[in-house]
Amino acid sequence: MKYNPSTTKIIAALLFSAVQLNDAFNFPSIPAFAKLVGGGNKAEQQGIAKISSSPLLESQKKELLETISFTKNGKDASPQTQARVLSLVREIEQTYPPSENLLSDPKEIQKLDGVWYLQYTSPSDIEEISADEDAWKPKEAAEGEINIDTKRYEAKGSIQAAGIPVDTSGNRVTTQSFDIAQGILINESKQDFGTVTITGTYRQSDNVPNRAVVTFLTADIALNIGITLKLGFLLAIRAFLKGTGEVGWLETTYIGEDMRIGRGNKGTLFILTKDADAVKP
Q1: Residue in 93, 182, 191 with CA at minimum distance from that of residue 134
Q2: Which of 85, 93, 161 is nearest to 125 (CA)?
Q3: Rounded CA separation 249/48 (Å)
Q4: What 3-state DSSP class applies to 196?
Q5: Distance between CA 126 and CA 133 in Å, rounded?
Q6: What φ, ψ does residue 265 adopt, rounded to 5°?
Q7: pLDDT class for 242, splitting at 50, 70, 90?
Q8: Which pLDDT tens digit goes with each residue over 115-139?
Q9: What DSSP element (H or E) covers 82?
Q10: Which regions of the chain does DSSP assign to beta strands (E)?
Q11: Which of 148-162, 181-195, 199-213: highest mean pLDDT?
């Protein structure tokens, strides 16, 4: 194989980004190299179940999917579109919150199981509506002594890793899979240079019941040139230097059979669907 300078640059960037201490993987967490190549009692839960497929909810979800279509995963969303998305999301979150047992009840957690397609990302608040008293605000964002990074990530249509934005717009398919039987989380992102797959474990937060605190263990990058880089050891070094492998969290604020809404530790809003084609890119 001929020497390829771009491959060397990719590896160097991966080594640099993986050992930085101040970064927390923010769903869907991948290394920084892309620029180079509800709860309550049983009666309440039954009430929520009855209205979870109400005509109003279906109408709100339909409008939400139509609103985020043609925004390239949020990258091209105007301030007006962002504001409408956040308004619709907040209505859904407040009216149909997930069970507080989502991550602890064996039956409830099955709702998370399977592959979810990332369809939209953006900050959880924008200037136009940041003063709204009903706006989503994280509780115990740093998760106490774990001191998870909560520095805001302002970009749209992308995710952040080690301070470098990774584009998820257009045809760059990004998924998050929960394998409940194995107790693992799998994040995968198809980029122009290849496919990144990161796996890890998760646990229920002690502070917020519908929040999953994540520890990433493996990181594989299958480059288009035929080489697969296995970088799990870098995550281990990172965990050793930081004193913990828990570097991020994802809070599920709504979940249905076909849609999941979440908020990340850096203030990012995520909208995911079971159907890869539910949103027009």
Answers
A1: 93
A2: 85
A3: 25
A4: strand
A5: 13
A6: -70, -15
A7: confident
A8: 999 999 988 877 655 556 678 888 8
A9: helix 79-95
A10: 114-123, 158-161, 164-167, 174-179, 184-191, 194-204, 211-223, 228-230, 246-255, 259-264, 268-273
A11: 199-213
Q: pLDDT digit string (tens) for 192-210?
A: 888 888 899 999 999 999 9
3-state secondary structure of 226: coil
Please give the structure tokens belonging to residue 142.
């740093």
Residue with tokens 């194995």: 182
Tokens of 114: 């399977």
- Which of 204 and 142 is assigned the larger pLDDT? 204
Q: Is the dihedral of CA 50, 55, 60, 65 positive or negative?
A: positive
Nearest to 217 by CA among 251, 177, 245: 245
Q: Map residue 229 onto helix, strand or coil.
A: strand
Instruction: Name the amino acid, one letter, at 221.
Output: I
Longest dimension (CA), the chain: 66
Displacement of CA 18 from its chain's centroid (Å): 19
Q: Which amino acid would we find at residue 245?
A: G
Q: Which amino acid is at 54?
A: S
Report d(CA 45, CA 98) in Å as an integer. 9
* Residue whose token pair is 């579109």: 81
Amino acid at position 44, single letter: E
Determine if the peptide bond prior to 28 is cis (ω within 30°): yes
By DSSP bridging, strand 268-273 and strand 158-161 are unpaired
Q: What is the pLDDT of residues 2-46, one digit of tens each?
A: 445 555 555 545 544 444 433 333 433 333 333 333 444 444 444
Assign 3-state DSSP to the chain and report helix, strand, coil percentages, each to 5: 25, 30, 45
Please state, in angstroms and as integers, the Cα–Cα distance from residue 25 to each residue in 37, 100, 191, 231, following that order: 20, 24, 17, 14
